[in-house]
Structures are given as C-alpha cells and as structure tokens.
Amino acid sequence: MSEARSEFLLVQTGSRPVGLLLRDVIEVGDIGEVFAVPSTAPAMRGVMASRGRLVPLLHLDALLTARACPAGMAPVGVLADLGGIRICLEVESADVVTRETLHPVPPGESLPWALAVVRREDGLIPILNLGALRERLLDAETRA
C-alpha cells in the first residue's frame, strides 16, 4: 500500500484505539434494544433495529481478539457497511474524525485485520480492513 491521506473515525474498543475509514461508516449513535439470536460468532451480541431493518450487533474488541462479548454492553454503536452487508459495531467511544497519512502495516506486526496504520507519538493506530472482518465472519458462519 502506498502512503495516502485518508479520513477515518477513531474509536476506542477495549483498551485500544482503532480507525474505521469514513467511506465504510454510515452513522454513529446509541445502541437501542438488542435482540439475542443464535450465532456461532462469539463476538455477536445479537441484532438491533437500524433504519427500518435488523442488523447484526458485534462487539468490536471481541471480534478482533476472537473472544466472547463482555457481560456489559458498550454505549456506542457504529453502523458500517462491510461490502454490502450492514453491521453495527459496539465500541466504548467514537468521537474523533481525522485525516492523516496511512502507512503500510510494518513487517513483524501481527495485525491481520488492519488495512494500514497511522503513526502517532504514543504508537501505531490500526485502520481496520472491514473486508477482512467480513471474510472472518462469513468464514466462521460457514464452518458452523
């Protein structure tokens, strides 16, 4: 990937900041009522109504770390488009939109779900590859 400036939404999930490209973000808001549904994806909290249809609600940190959702629900939902599939990502906060230079993931870094990184004084911020997350979800559902 060549270095380029891109706009992204900075979110806090678990103990880490990550970026979501604005082209993939539909809206940010409160998470409404959640309905439990059977799923083999441990990060899936359930489904929720958004814009007149039901969308899967996934805890982003649980998805990135391949763990189950924590007991308590995070307060913010980011409605995103994963290549034609709408999902809501549950995060602790989503309050900064920025435009910065994206850099390739450095060799040796274990960030299989990162499209690129942003370099900051306090470290690297991964920019999520929602296409890779989509493939991870679809792969998990087909193995079940």
Question: Helix amount, in percent?
Answer: 10-25%
Question: What sequence of helices (H) and strands (E) makes up the elements?
Answer: EEEEEEHEEEEEH
Number of strands: 11
Structural class: mainly beta
CATH class: Mainly Beta
CATH topology: OB fold (Dihydrolipoamide Acetyltransferase, E2P)
| Alpha carbon gap, first and last residue | 34 Å
Relevant CATH superfamily: CheA-289, Domain 4
Low-confidence stretches: none
> How much strand?
over 45%
Q: What Rg do the Cα atoms give?
A: 15 Å
Counted by DSSP, the helix tally is 2
Average predicted confidence as pLDDT: 88
Based on Cα principal axes, name the global outline: globular
Largest sheet: 6 strands, mixed
Strand order of the largest sheet: 3-7-8-6-5-4
CATH architecture verdict: Beta Barrel
Number of domains: 1
Write the layout of secondary structure elements.
Layout: E1 4-13, E2 16-21, E3 25-30, E4 34-35, E5 44-50, E6 53-59, H1 60-65, E7 76-82, E8 85-91, E9 93-102, E10 114-120, E11 123-128, H2 130-143
Parallel strand pairs: 6-8
Antiparallel strand pairs: 1-2, 1-9, 3-7, 4-5, 5-6, 7-8, 10-11
Explained architecture:
By secondary structure, this protein is mostly beta strands. 14% of the residues lie in helices and 52% in strands. The model has no long low-confidence stretch (mean pLDDT 88).
List keywords for this structure.
mainly beta, six-stranded mixed sheet, 11 strands, OB fold (Dihydrolipoamide Acetyltransferase, E2P), three-stranded antiparallel sheet
